[in-house]
Amino acid sequence: MENFKICPISEHCGGCLYQGVSYEEQRAEKENIIREQLTRRKVDDSVFCGLVPALSEYRYRNKMEYTFGDLEIGGELTLGMHKKRHFMSIVTCDECQLVPMDFNRVLRATLDFCVEKGYSFYHKKSHQGLLRNLVVRHGVKTNELLVNIVTSSEDGFDEQAYLDMLLGLKLDNELIGVMRTFNDSLADAVINEGVKILFGRDYYNEEILGLKFKVNAFSFFQTNIEAVERLYSEALALIPELDSKVVYDLYCGTGTISQLMASKAKKVYGIEIVQDSVDAAIDNAKMNNIDNCHFICGDVKAKLDEVTEKPDMIVVDPPRMGMHDKVVEMLSSYGIEQILYISCNPNTMAMNLEKFSELGYEPVVMKAYDNFPKTKHVESVTLLSRTTL
């Protein structure tokens, strides 16, 4: 059993907000934030059931995207997270408590390798340099580990030596893929401009509530598997009988909820703007022998009208920015009895619920989940019911 202490870089790292704060204080503050947002938007919080505690405070993340850089101008190479309030500075975080120990091992070994080789990092201002990011992903149910080093196309990176170093590490999980992604984009983001598989494959496998998922290197996927299994189970339990019903799953990502509903529903339409996620959703449905899910790539606002079969039930799981008022209006216009709203941002959730209320939909059940302890993030589930004809 690990003896967790306050993270040694908590003063500088921008990843955690609540290092050194008792878990009960964290929960109380997050719950208060949700209630304040609901009150500010005049949303009835009497149906709010509170914040469900985390299943685990530590080692729960299955993906991390690290950045190469330096802590001080001209300083030694670092690899990790952005420093608080200093976007150009990077703090090495090889003792992170939120990730599996293998992530810390891979990060430290990668940094040591790159320092020994004398590699430079990609400078955001000059747009020169080799090293950009390290992305590590983990299959919780399968114990598979995927490593992706992101560089510019600049010559000099010794791929074979890097691979040999990784294969020589003692890890808890099985290293099933090592990739090098090329990115010469000016944007400060992991952008795929070409991938070279150095070892194994460019995806890992995962399981959620009995379904199997192939998670591509660049696909969005839930970052806390045990927590999302609980959230999805309790969220879907709120939905009335789905037999013979047509369901819309909007902002569906890789189609996890779509496929979970498919066993009961007549048909599920999933809409998602990221093509890679839609491709993964289609592949995963085939892998799970599900033939009543239809996935559409595009913006929800633009694609809703393309679906001629109208819904009996709607599930939405929008990004942090929430839903545009126009989308809320479109969903309300269907006149169905219930809408299930899954949120990752209390602020935009309250904003959307306020708009739904204006259009005749009120929350009847609302529950929040502390799926990301030590950070500011919370997720929530709200069942909305139509109150006007």
TrEMBL record:
GO-annotated biological processes: rRNA base methylation
Keywords: Methyltransferase, S-adenosyl-L-methionine, Transferase
GO-annotated molecular function: rRNA (uridine-C5-)-methyltransferase activity
Top-level division of the source organism's lineage: Bacteria
Keyword Metal-binding assigned: no
InterPro entries hit by this protein: MeTrfase_TrmA_AS, SAM-dependent_MTases_sf, U5_MeTrfase_fam
Active site: 344 (nucleophile), 344
CDD domains associated with the record: AdoMet_MTases
Binding site for S-adenosyl-L-methionine: 222, 251, 272, 317
Family: Belongs to the class I-like SAM-binding methyltransferase superfamily. RNA M5U methyltransferase family.
NCBIfam families xref list: rumA (TIGR00479)
Name the record gives this protein: 23S rRNA (Uracil(1939)-C(5))-methyltransferase RlmD
Upper classification of the organism: Bacteria, Bacillati, Bacillota, Clostridia, Peptostreptococcales
